[in-house]
Each structure stands twice: as C-alpha cells, then as structure tokens.
Amino acid sequence: MIHHPVLRQLADSGIKLGLEDVRGFLQAQGEPHRAYPVVHIAGTNGKGSTSTMVTSVLVDAGYTVGTNLSPHLEAVNERVCINGMPLDDGSLTEAIEALDRARTDWARSQGRRDSPLTYFEFLTCLAFQVFAERGVDVAVVEVGLGGRLDATNIVHPQVTAITQIGLDHMDVLGDTIEAIAGEKAGIIKPGVPMIVGSMPKPARDVIETMATRMGSPCWLPGRHLSRENARSGWRIGTPDGTIERLQLSLPGEHQGSNAMVALGILHALRRQGFHIPDEAIRSGLQRARINGRLDEVKEHLWVDGAHNVDASKALARWLARREKPESRILLFGMGSTRDPRAILEPLIPYIDEVVATHCAHPKARKSHELAALLQDMDIILSDGGPIEEALPEVYAEAHETLAMGSLFLAGAVRSLVGDGVLNEIVAGQGFGDVVPESDETS
To answer: Which pTM value belongs to this model?
Structure first.
C-alpha cells in the first residue's frame, strides 16, 4: 500500500467537474489516452464489477489490459491495474513523481500559480500515462462520477456502456432519474456502440434518445440483450449470439445484469476485430473477482460496498435467497451525505441487529450521529463506535456479520482482517486507524 506526499496534498482538493484542465494537460503530454483502444463504463451501480468482468475476459483472450477503477478500497494502487493486478509500489511512486513534475511544468507554461488537477484528475491522468508506457492492447476505464463532465470522459472509446441508473449523487447530477441518466449519457460518442444495462424505463429512454441523436448503435435489455439464470448457469444473449451455462464467481443475482452488459461490450469489440473466443468469455467471467462486493473476507464475515438504495435492495435480494443464520448483525456505516434510513429499510427483514459504526474517512458520518438518525426504526440498534472497536465485538457475538454502507467501510474492514488484526483484537490487542487517501465519498 502506497502513501505519497503528493496524494496527501491532493486529498483535500475536492470534486471538480469539467474537462478543461485534464484536456489541456494530456495534450501537453502527447495525449497518452489515445495510444490504445478504450472501453468506457458508467453507471450508478455495477460499473466496477462490469469493468472487472470485461478485463478478466480480455486477459483470458490474450490481451494486455489496463484497468482504471475508482474509488480504491485499501490501496490507491488498485486504481491502476495491468492485467487485473494493481501497480506495484515502486512503479506507482515513479509514475506519481513524474506526473507531478509534468503538471508543475505545465502550470508554469500556462502562467498559473495554482496546482492544477484534483486528486481524481491526477490519478486518472496517471492511469492513462502508465497504460501508454506499458503498451496495453486495450484499457477498461470506469467513470468516477456521472459521465458528461467526469475526467475520464476525455477518452475516445471503442465501446461505451451504462450499467444501471439510480438516484445517487443528486446534489451534483440532478434530482430526477432522467437528469442523472442525461449526465451519464454524456459518455456517448458519435457512432460508438453503447451497451445499456437494466434500469428504469425513463432512464433508458433518455439514453436511447441521446444515442439516436449521436448516431450510436444502442443495445438495450429486452430488445437486444437478455439474461436468464437457469439451474445450469446464466444464459446471456446479444445480437451476436447467446452463451449458455455461464458460471459467475461474483455472488448476487444483480451480477447477471452486469454480466449481460459485459457480454454486450465483448461482442461489440468482436465486431471491431478483437479475437475473443467463447472459451475466454466463460473462463473470464468465472474467475472475475472484485473486492468489497458481497465479499466474504473471513468466515461468516461479509462486506459489501452498497451505499445507495438500489445497491441495498440488491443486497436484500441476495440475503433473501440465503439461509438465515441464528443471528445476523449488520455493521452499518456511511458517508455524511447519504440517507441511512432509506438504505437500511430494505435490509431490516433479513438482519437481527444494527450496530452503527464509522471508518476513519473524513467524510464518514460518526456512529453516534448515525444511530440517532435510526433510533425509531423497527430494529435492535446500538452505537458501536469506530470500526476498529465495533468489528471484533460484533464478530465475536454474531453467527454472521455483514458490514455495509460505504466502499470505504468495506475497505477498512478488509484491511483490518488482511492485517490479521481481527484475531489480535479478539485476543484483546489494539491497533491504529486506517485512513484512506481520497477526496471521494462512497
């Protein structure tokens, strides 16, 4: 895990929507983002899982793949992957320092005194530069926030996709499903194929209208794309054929929709000359894994990054299909801008107790504040304090523990378990905070 002074300095830079700085800086660097074909993936939920699936299949098909994901769970290295593996500390340190010198030189050439590029913009440009230097055959790029004004929207993709649309980040993207869909549809490019996942009809209509206006072929669920979960595995169809008996390693019924989008992307790439055998699709989807999404990090301890209502409903559907243990306790923590009541509501039938908690992220809502907001809901509730205190107590008590509400909370739990700290704490030993370097809230 890398901690670099440049990233710490940028961590408080906040969110800045717009492409002017990124475009100007990348032009000065020789436009590294145009050195390879790109798959560009947006969506309220599911874009990380879909990006991982596409990456896994392309690697199994023999391609060298760069993947740009966000946010990271435990280490910033996760945002820049080559063939599914995060960049090592040494390579990432060299890339950070080289890019920092380049942005300083560029700012001086523009007569600017400020430090251009936010945390997210810097890491986006860094990923593009690393992919060019490594000579990747294709890059899979996940949108950070929205689409139209997201820093990743500088790319010239071969295929675009929108996995799902829900009411999230409404303070930035708009307060209706149509407005949010319009922002995410901003990644559509003239003539470039667009793959659309399962979503409400008003959102789908906005995307289809935009695609028609841009002359972009648009594959839609029910019309061009299909999915069915049979006993033998998933059956997923696109205009270019159907593959049956697909086994997905990622748990949850909602991953079928993500796999449908992934297969649509892969078949669209086939039309452009990519050699992607069915065998690679089968093996790639079966081995694709992404941390923090229905992730069993220790026996009877699951973490999930669900942080909005649609993701919470997907989690509830997964819980409904599983045998209920004698006691299931939810460790619940989230960002200060989220509506905890709406997110908790779908889960109440499947849990026995809620323990409010928080991780060390600066935008996390404190556990006592969260507990106060939930106190009149029909569930046993307590304030567990920081995750480092709440986790061992809950894990020791519950037959099954589920931590959810934030990707950063999921990352904190994974770090604690990965460091072997949970066993030490159960034995009565302590440890320090895990503080992510990021300006984002998830």
So the answer is: 0.89
